[in-house]
Amino acid sequence: MSDDVDFDVIVIGAGVAGSVCAHQLAKAGHEVVLIERGSEPGSKNLSGGVFYCRVLDEVFPDFVSSAPVERRITRNVLSFLNGDSHVNIDYWDERLAEPANAVTVLRARLDPWLAEQCEQAGAMVMPGVRVDGLLRDGERVVGVRAGEDELRAHVVVAADGVNSFLARDAGVRPKEPQRHLAVGVKSVIALPRPVIEDRFRVTGDEGVAYAVVGDCTQGVAGGGFLYTNRESVSVGVVLRLDDLGARGLSSSDVHDHFLAHPAIAPLIRGGELLEYGCHLTIEDGPAMAARDLTRPGLVLIGDAAGLTLNTGLTIRGMDLAAGSALAAARTVAAALSTGDCSGEALGAYRTELERSFVGADLRTYGRAPKFLENPRMYGDYGRLLADVFHGIYTHDLRPRRHLVGAALGAVKASGVGLGQLARDGWAAARAL
Amino acid sequence: MSAYGSVTDRLARNSYVLDEAECHIEVNQEIARSTGTGKLLVRVCPAQVYGEAPDGTISVNYAACLECGTCLAVAAPGALTWHYPRGGFGIAYREG
Questions:
Q1: Confidence (pTM)
Q2: Which of A179, A330, A374, B21 reaches 20 to 30 Å from A407, CA-CA?
Q3: Domain harbouring A111, CATH code
Q4: Is residue A80 helix, strand or coil?
């Protein structure tokens, strides 16, 4: 292995994936630089879901008590939303508080903390630097180029997010089909702590996360989300790009429609807007992550590797980012110790990934994206559910029907059809 | 327009470091027009960076860009040149 390097490893992108990977490698004694294009880690990062944080137990033993996290999620609400009705599944469980299963985070607070842990472990953090491309020696990636500067390393880890220009540069990622991607549009709205506790029925540092389908997106494939931070609420929509394009709607209008919806507006009423942001996200993680994730001298992790899972009920990215970072760190450490950072040595990353929860869950939910392409998920089923309950609770002096009769009547009236319902139900069971 | 103001009002609350020397977005007007990409950009961009003049020309207010990359993902080949702003410039989220 050439000694003509500035660092053992260059990690690009100080998000969850990049920071966890840089931390692990620095802690193992390797020379690591973590390059971030924002003037401060976190300043370019935005998330729209909760962080299933158990994966960090092995990295930062006191993560939830020492990191700047917002709230532990103990209440999950799945909401089928229609224009003038909704049917919610509201799941509250104290067991989710300890050990903390999922937390809400604001990335401008979390990511600087993660980068600080990297520095304490011995990594050099280099913010305010945009990496413009990869340096190559033949087929082999040997470093990065940033403006006039060149930095060389035995291994480059690309944690540069969903748009990963480095993965494109390396020829790993073609132009992504639009149905693989979605745009998230989010507002962070300040509310006093007592208002959050009263309005969302939470106490202390516990919180709630809503996953919403249906009228929240005006029928566009995708969904709405809302979750509580310490003294604010993050609320917004995720819109699949192919469907957003096809339906002729504007992404900011759909976001505004959701916030003004009679089921959502009362939850954020009186709040002050702190920030309006957006971020591209991945709808078909299993398809994207099935591609090559390494080249000689290069490893992709986190969003750059396509690692996101939308199961309909849970939307995951940060935990997979951390899981892939751990798998990559193990692979890179082994490669550095043998002095072989070729494609073959780094190819062991795939095996590490498959062995971890990341690979297992990608396999389990491999069918979910296809199932979630079903347009009935974004309209018909929400109305159907509301019609079933409407049949149960409306007492208009007509003779009552048994529950099954009322439900069958609603199915018949919905135009979905029993056969279709059975097929979708079976597909849901297999996909989710 | 929503209870929280227009998109422009809302973006005014965000923190940006404007790169006066370099614009990171460029539209090929010919291709944007012939492929319909122009109209699509106007709709999909959550920050309303893109606007369409009466003659169909697409304007770019790159200072408002939130750097999500949605425009690049939907643009027809050749219609758009888009990269991240130079290091340290652009949106600086304070919440995220």
A1: 0.95
A2: A374
A3: 3.50.50.60
A4: strand
